[in-house]
Amino acid sequence: MLADTMFFPPERSTVAGSVDGLFDFIYYLSLFFFVLIIGFMIYFVLKYYQRDGHTEAPSPSHNETLEITWSVIPSILVGVIFFFGFTEYLNMREAPENAYEIQVVASKWNWVFKYPNGAESGDLHIPVDRDVKFLLQSQDVLHSFYIPAFRIKMDCVPQRYTWTWVRATHTTGSGLDESSHEPLRLFCAEYCGQQHSIMHRKVFVHETADFDQWVEKAANILENNTPEEAGKILFGRKGCAQCHSVDGDNSAKYPGPPLNGQWGTERQVTPRGSSSPITVTMDENYVRQSIRQPNSEIVVGRKPGMTVFTPQLLKDEEITAIIAYLKSIK
Ligand code: HEC
Ligand SMILES: [Cu+2]
User: Fold this and answer.
1) Ligand closest to CA 143
2) How many distinct structural domains can be found in the chain?
3) What is the pLDDT of residues 192-208, one digit of tens each?
């Protein structure tokens, strides 16, 4: 079909087929009328243009048959589009009962996914062939939760809840090793400020058994791993990796400085409200402050823009684990 070959990734949810069907219907209908109307226009121009020896015919004032035809046919077509669009919209609005519920919290410029057992992740993980409801929230401005392969998109609105749901039809791979998956893409589809373009994440669709195992492990990162390993997982899940490279990549792709090989080194920072930089050392308290109050001191040569990680977003024990990880990366 046209929609999923030209405009979208392959269909991966139960609603994708009808969304694309309606898209294609509207597209081909428009194409048909475009060709028809332009065709008649060209034909009339050639037939009736003003030239020597051609006398102007009086312009017709009224043609009832024609007028009824051009009112009734489009009305029927618009009615058909409305019927299919509206029934599918209603289906997409209301999640089936007993859907698995994932909370989605959008913020500038991060996504957090929270699962019923307390697990949290930065990339989205869902089971295949199961209704999954997303309860959406925003901590600051309008964001929009958009997964093209599922053909779902819904705004995340500050101060209120919105929701959408999906039933994925294909897994993205098997096992818990993320490198054996070909994840789908999730985007923020509402321009939300300076770093809007980093608000994209991966979507993993698991076999049911794999998902159960994943969500169980994810709920207990700190218990099931050494602090260093837990810190590495959190660094990815909490969105740090979107803004900081750990391989020295200092390009504009990453708004924040690279964080490998920094432990114990000195840097120049400008305290808020001051114009003269001071020298600080990357140690435990500096990292903690960089996370809790990123705008209190700005690294010289950088712009403010780091997410403020409140204790709800990142617990104290999690900062400790991230510190262990930062110490370990050379
Ligand atoms: C939205 C992008 C963004 C995210 C997400 C982000 N940071 Fe940052 N970070 C920055 C920017 C930009 C700076 C430099 C400006 C400043 O000093 O605040 C920075 C600075 C830092 C610094 C000081 C670096 C130095 O060389 O002195 C540390 C440490 C740090 N971030 C750690 C983290 C950790 C840990 C996380 C995840 C919990 C994280 N950041 C998430 C953008 C981000
Ligand atoms: Cu956004």
Assistant:
1) 2
2) 3
3) 998 899 999 999 999 99
Q: Looking at ligand 1, which atom is closest to the CA of residue 287? A: 29
CATH number at residue 147: 2.60.40.420
Ligand nearest to the CA of 256: 1
Decide if 298 contacts 269 (C-beta within 8 A): yes
106 and 38 share a domain? no
Q: How far is the CA of 297 from the centre of ligand 2 (A)?
A: 25
Same domain (yes/no): 118, 207: yes
User: pLDDT tens digit string along 113-172?
Assistant: 999 998 888 899 999 999 999 999 999 999 999 999 999 999 999 999 999 999 999 999
Q: How far is residue 207's CA from residue 213's CA, in Å, rounded to a whole number?
A: 10
Mean of pLDDT values over 43-66: 85
Q: How far apart are CA 285 and CA 144, in angstroms?
A: 35
Structural tokens at position 75: 């009305």
Quick check: CB of 304 below 6 Å from ligand 1? yes
**What's the pTM?**
0.70
227, 320 contact by CB (below 8 A): yes
Same domain, 246 and 137: no
**Which residue has the least CA distance to atom 3 on ligand 1?**
306
> Are 130 and 196 members of one domain?
yes
Which residue reads 């994925």 in tokens? 168
The answer, yes or no, to whether any atom of ligand 1 lies below 6 A from the CB of 309, is: yes
